[in-house]
Amino acid sequence: MDEYNNMADGGSPHQLSDQARTQKDLAAFLKSRSMYELMPESGKVVVVEVELSVKTAMWALAHHELQSAPLWSSAERRFVGMLTMTDVLDVLRHFHAHKLNSKAASTEKISQILEDTSVKEWRAFSADKTPDRPHSFVSVSPISTLYEACSLLKDHRIHRLAVIDGEHHVVLCTVTHDLILQYIVSQFRSNATLFHHQLRDLEIGTFRHVITVQPETPLIDILQMLVEHRISAIPIVDASGVLLDVYCRSDILYLVHDQRYDDLEIPVSEALAARGVPKKGYRVLTCKQTDTLKTVIERLSVAYENRLICVDDDLYVQGIVSLTDLFDYFLREFS
Asked: Does pLDDT of 21 surpass 50?
């Protein structure tokens, strides 16, 4: 899935030169570090067998508060893919449409369909319907460099990458953009003036055609927007455009956990209420166009979030800056 489309390239020649130097330094740093150095000392990895039901697999993600899980095929004795939030959204959207078309009368019927459909069957169906999406299993070894990992994330348009002990078929951890960013912030040292430039001068993020919705918008409409526009979150605003909240792809897991498969017509405000207060706490993370690149990077690195909503002094939404935007900015190749 592509994150938000970046603004057109620009900037002064001095900024481009500074960006090129910083890019070169960061690339050298990433090439000098292996995945071993990034891996946490302890953690939880959930692997899903493809013969399990879709219902069980989705509930496992919700129960363990995970946004992805490697898929294992016992028949093939190998990892065959990754179960992600995109899969969860597609499953719920598909069976919601099925319910409307067949006039199914109850949640139990949808629940039973999910119980009777295996992950393997769903993957085969999904691969036929969405051939443009990555369906193969992409991974790295513990001795791969961070640069290789970043390149794979970018090239395959994915946001999670499994670190595999290939000899023993063991998933050691799952690497994400935020985990890599936290490591860069803690280990990478640079005196580049680029980090002191304001966000508005660097043209990082999306500041045109930003999609927003109001609290009464049906949840199913938001799920459609997330998938069709290939974005990970949508700001919720009041009638005047002031930021109230944000709905992320992973928020659907709160309804999955409670098996509310037929509640996709509820207003997004009600869906957000079902979210409650996550264990890590929750608030809408924002930035301003006058913030420096250093401020934006540090805020994202400590927040366990994938984006900042850019607002003005009155909290009117101006744009969105995502982790993918940052990585694309630093790792893009110059002609």
From this structure: yes
pTM of the model: 0.84
Question: The tokens 């700001």 sit on which residue?
Answer: 235
Q: Are 313 and 329 in contact (CB under 8 A)?
A: no
Pairing of β 160-165 and β 139-140: parallel
Give the separation between CA 112 and CA 116, rounded to whole angstroms.
Answer: 6
Walk across the sheet containing 317-322 and list its strands: 286-287, 307-311, 317-322
Helices marked H in the chain — which ranges? 13-31, 35-38, 54-63, 85-102, 107-116, 119-129, 146-155, 177-187, 199-202, 219-228, 253-257, 268-275, 293-303, 323-331
Alpha carbon 197 to chain centroid, angstroms: 26
Please give the single-letter amino acid code of residue 127. Answer: A
Measured between its terminal Cα atoms, the distance across the chain in Å is: 25
Mean pLDDT of 152-159: 89
Mean pLDDT of 37-41: 87
Q: Which of 150, 213, 165, 211 is nearest to 5 (CA)?
A: 211
DSSP string, 169-198: TEEEEEEEHHHHHHHHHHH-----GGGGSB
Q: What is the mean pLDDT of residues 115-140?
A: 86
State the Cα–Cα distance between residues 251 and 256, nearest whole angstrom. Answer: 9
Q: What residues have CB less than 8 Å from 157, skipping those under 6 apart?
A: 1, 2, 134
Task: Give per-residue pLDDT as tens, 309-329.
Answer: 999 999 999 999 999 999 888
How far apart (Å, rounded) are the C-alpha atoms in residues 60 and 107? 19
Rounded to the nearest 5 percent, the helix, strand and coil shares of the chain are 45, 20, 35
Query: What's the alpha-carbon Rg for the chain, to the nearest Å?
Result: 21
- pLDDT digit string, tens, across residues 68-79: 999 999 999 999
For 100, 222, 223, 271, the CA distances from 265, given in Å and listed in that order, are 11, 10, 11, 10
Contact at 8 Å (CB) between 8 and 207? no
Arithmetic mean of pLDDT, 257-283:
77
